[in-house]
Design brief:
Number of helices: 10
Number of strands: 12
Structural class: alpha/beta
CATH superfamily: P-loop containing nucleotide triphosphate hydrolases
CATH architecture: 3-Layer(aba) Sandwich
Length: 247
Amino acid sequence: MLKIENLHANVGDKPILKGLNLNINAGEIHAIMGPNGAGKSTLAYTIGGRDGYDVTGGAVDFDGEDLLSLDPHERAAAGLFLGFQYPVEIPGVSNLQFLRESLNAQKRARGEDELSGAEFIRLAKEKAAMLKMDMEMLKRPVNVGFSGGEKKRNEMVQMGIIDPKIAILDETDSGLDIDALRIVGEGINNIMRRPDKAVLLITHYQRLLDLVKPDFVHVLAGGKIVRSGGAELALELEEYGYEEVAA
């Protein structure tokens, strides 16, 4: 589904990704762990097409298509979802308005029928209930006045409504308490653990992986993946730290 070959990327004049290789098949959940400054968020933003993250070499294939040739909105329409470490606030735009416009814009790009207002509300209620989010929160401006946990839960509702092929989730567990972490973990499993979908989960901590149970864990250090393994690799990192495990 997603094949990254020898990817190099700069932020400004500084090289961050230095020959990263990764292959994610449909039905798989991959976790990436690594020390601060290793390039984890840069990888997520580069895949998503964020401005300021410049690819200087390599290729990214998504379902047989050259992902790097697409604009960010085209990547989204192709089935890519990017979850941010720090979800942004959008004053004056309600969650429901934002999500309906986003979903229907993607449907138009794919030549699919748009959802009516009633159809969309039914879908939003279903996904909000799955993430234990009150529908009243979806009527509020996007993330405005939300706690850290509410922002992450809201992002999972967004993911459920958009229903992407692959989700790139950048430290979704950051700032979550125990209950919020459990809800987010269950949301990832319920929405994305399917034979036709995939997840790239960027995290520092074992606690989310206990809930999501990835198929593969990778250590990213110095701008490239230096070690890969099963879920047991995360336990090894927890016990010994990055420096020893990635050496």
